[in-house]
Amino acid sequence: MRDLCVIGLGLIGGSLLRAATQTGRTAWGATESSADADAARTDGFDIEPAVEAALRRAAERDAMVVLAVPLTAAESVLRTVAELAPHCLLTDVTSVKQPIAELAARIAPQSTFVGGHPMAGTTRSGWQAGDAQLFAKAAWVVCVDEDTDLTSWAEVATLAIDVGAEVVPTSSELHDEAVARISHLPHLLAAVLAHVGAEDGPLPLSLAAGSFSDGTRVAATRPELTRAMAEGNRAALLPVLDSALGMLGAARGALASTGSLGATINAGYEATRARATQAGSPRSPVRVDLTAADAPEALLALGAQGGRITELSDDVAVGALPMLDDDHGQQ
Amino acid sequence: MRDLCVIGLGLIGGSLLRAATQTGRTAWGATESSADADAARTDGFDIEPAVEAALRRAAERDAMVVLAVPLTAAESVLRTVAELAPHCLLTDVTSVKQPIAELAARIAPQSTFVGGHPMAGTTRSGWQAGDAQLFAKAAWVVCVDEDTDLTSWAEVATLAIDVGAEVVPTSSELHDEAVARISHLPHLLAAVLAHVGAEDGPLPLSLAAGSFSDGTRVAATRPELTRAMAEGNRAALLPVLDSALGMLGAARGALASTGSLGATINAGYEATRARATQAGSPRSPVRVDLTAADAPEALLALGAQGGRITELSDDVAVGALPMLDDDHGQQ
């Protein structure tokens, strides 16, 4: 099992270092934040004094390097990787995949890069917010792109599974479109709702209960983190924002003209049922032979159908697919 | 203490009947739903065989009548009230206040009407979803309008406090504007998010985690309930929808032109801080003498500043105000 070098010890990096160490893997970390480094060291983890030292050790040990820094810091860390650990297997946990893949190809072209993204988060950040159980049953995207080496892909997928996650194989492009819908749009709607709720003084906030609290929760995330992920996914986010604006505008028009919100509210209700159906449906088992010529296509098909991989061994990926009617999940 | 007659035994009516009975008040209910009536009777509550019988008993006992039916059913129940219990003290728990006040004045002009709205709910409905603890610490709007009789207002406010709620005095108009912001807009944004998340097949839903689940939770509410409350508040909801559309459109424009979502995301973040400040601020005690000439204005000022009333006795309302700087809650 390859050693692990985690650069960045915030919520995700810190949780990964804890979880990987717990599975018995040799793992060390480093961060530019001396507060996070000190806290991690106090908690008994193997923390190098600087990012450079961590990457030199990774090069010596041929470790897997995990970039666990915000998108805005990725370029600078990749330059250090290219200088000190240029041939390492490299993955990341950033919330957008195409920009990172392009950066890695441009700045650290000698490394073997496989993009990754665990779908786990809270509104808290930093080492103290981390938790070895953060990834339990969470989806962890491991990207299958045209140039992806499947042996390296399997190594990254194995790390994700070892720390409790379930692997979703998809392309960087489809990942970015998906997270625009289910992560970046929710953050923007939460910001809009929080602002509109507060813009008229104390009375509305005094009456706010469950629907407002739920709808605004992620607006409390540190703004620079939300900005980094949403602005970094601009190309995929724009058409999704247009979808949302179109639907909200249509609701406004219908309410003004006919007084009906039926189309909007029914569509939302049906969509929540489609999601519940997909989440609760029986699963059919799937096996993908990673040595087969069509393995990339088979993995991409599995991800596109809502499938997840829960086991990897002997060049075979074992997973499960929700058994959906044609109508489900396609509302 | 006046007896209580609750018409409608869904989530709110059923919870109120349970809570009022628990405080020792003589209380009975009735509903058009034989399933809810049977369940309530099985649970040991005093359920009349029909709405008419419940209202005749209210007239005999000069009870307080609570309309706990959806807005769409209010007109029909009010006609029965006007026929069988025309002089009773009447309140309601409907989520819009101006339309109900107008209906009551038109259909049951001999009754003394005081509008009410407990800000408590779940996505579940029906008798089985009810809970005597539903109103604990919840805001319960009791309306102070131009024609409100303060003695009757105090009786309704006492009922709300008796079942654990805190009373927010405000006008029907300001109530409707406030709930458009903090309840009806969240329901519409949840519907939009749920639909946009599901419109591209199973992959995005397979990756959906906390931000999407929180942002879509209330889209699972029965569509006819959401429609009744949002469509019934059309006049107040339209300008709030325009605010949200304007802000989301500005975010779209900024992302497309400059690549920045800073204005949107920072405004959302600042608003969550304003709300936390308001919720967590020290309270200053307030007393309102309900016999004073300016009592209505004093009550409205208390509500406008985010205050709540927690005690009523001897014509004095005792409450507390958050101590806010001028900037707080006014973002």
From TrEMBL, chains A, B:
- Which keywords does UniProt give here? Oxidoreductase
A family per Pfam = PDH_C
Domain of life of the source: Bacteria
Record InterPro entries: 6-PGluconate_DH-like_C_sf (IPR008927), NAD(P)-bd_dom_sf (IPR036291), PDH_C (IPR046825), PDH_N (IPR046826), Preph/Arog_dehydrog (IPR050812), Prephen_DH (IPR003099)
Q: What is its EC number?
A: 1.3.1.12
Can you tell me which residues the record assigns to a coiled coil?
Answer: none
Q: What class of enzyme is it?
A: oxidoreductase
Q: Does the keyword Oxidoreductase apply?
A: yes
SUPFAM superfamilies per record? 6-phosphogluconate dehydrogenase C-terminal domain-like, NAD(P)-binding Rossmann-fold domains
Q: Give the family from UniProt.
A: Belongs to the prephenate/arogenate dehydrogenase family.
Which named protein is this?
Prephenate dehydrogenase
